[in-house]
Amino acid sequence: MATSTTQVYCLAVAEKTDSVVRILAAEQDLTSFSWLQRGSIAEFVNFFTKTVIERTPLGQRAKIEEKELLGHVFIRADGLSCVMITKSTYPSRTAFSLLNRLADEFSSKFPQKSQWATMNPATTSPRYPELKAHLTKAQDPESADPFMRVQKELDETKIVLHKTMESLLQRGEKLDELVIKSDELSSASKVFYKTAKKTNSCCGY
After folding, report:
1. How far apart are the C-alpha atoms of 76 and 61, rounded to whole Å?
2. Residue range 8-144, CATH number
3. pLDDT tens for residues 98-120?
4. Cα separations (Å) of 15 from 3, 49, 97, 166, 178?
5. Is the whole model's pTM more than 0.85, yes or no?
């Protein structure tokens, strides 16, 4: 179970197309979890990130609750997607302010989609160290840093869809079944998911 020290578990930038979601850059902070849990939790964070992007239409912002997790997603019309996974108590206006700026920064630094085709978190990290810095700053949502300053004109009640993870699933789908079928998760992580769900631990799973 996570302690209260970490507010933001993941920041990620991805490309959404008709056929696939590709993670281009990602940074995680899972230090609040025991080292024995971190591998499985990292896989679940990636699974959660891809799933919310897949199920959110282009041009939308949404926040998706799943137990103790809150996923904030911003998907531009061109498919550039930014996701922030936080504790459920994290202020959403701050999260979406960061995601707006993150999308602008990333597309300015890597303006060509042809660049995106060869990117993945491992190769992008040294080329985009700003992402890790943003994750560190985001841990303090009250920070006076300009990057985290709330954009007053953003009215999330009008432009943000508030959903649960279950509401993103198609009729008849269950999250448990997606986990079982997922190629993103190892066998060990699937066993961990079942065990953690029974004990209501690991981010509420």
Report:
1. 9
2. 3.30.450.50
3. 999 999 999 999 998 888 989 99
4. 31, 12, 20, 23, 21
5. no
